[in-house]
Structures are given as structure tokens and as C-alpha cells.
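Example S7 (C-alpha cells).
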């Protein structure tokens, strides 16, 4: 029984590796990685932007909710 489980585990790992290699070599993966990198860069710019603009936005938020 333990030997059979080992064979199934090895087969599952091999099939997963083949599927992962197939996905990595497609154009969809490279374009998704590019979009993710652009999103991370944009998020970093927002986080590292002026603290004053964040305070201004948070101060005007209650006014917008009341309207």
C-alpha cells in the first residue's frame, strides 16, 4: 500500500511539473506577469507618495459620505 501511494505521488508530481512547464512557456503567462509587475509598480508609487495627499483624502471622505 505504501509503495502504491509513492507511485501515485511521483506520478502526480511529474504531471504537475509538465503542466507548469506548459503554462510558463505560453504567451498568457508572460503577459500576466507583465501586468502584475505594472500593478506592483503602481501600488508602490501610491504607497510611497506624499503623506499629505493621503491626509487630505481621508479628511474629505466624511464629507463625501454625508452628501
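Recovered sequence:
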Amino acid at each position: 500500500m505504501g509503495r502504491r501511494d509513492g507511485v501515485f505521488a511521483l506520478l502526480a508530481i511529474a504531471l504537475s511539473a509538465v503542466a507548469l512547464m506548459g503554462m510558463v512557456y505560453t504567451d498568457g503567462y508572460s503577459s500576466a506577469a507583465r501586468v502584475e509587475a505594472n500593478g506592483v509598480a503602481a501600488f508602490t508609487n501610491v504607497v510611497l507618495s506624499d503623506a499629505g495627499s493621503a491626509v487630505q483624502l481621508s479628511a474629505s471622505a466624511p464629507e463625501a459620505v454625508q452628501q
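Notes on this example. Residues 2-24 form the longest helix (23 residues).
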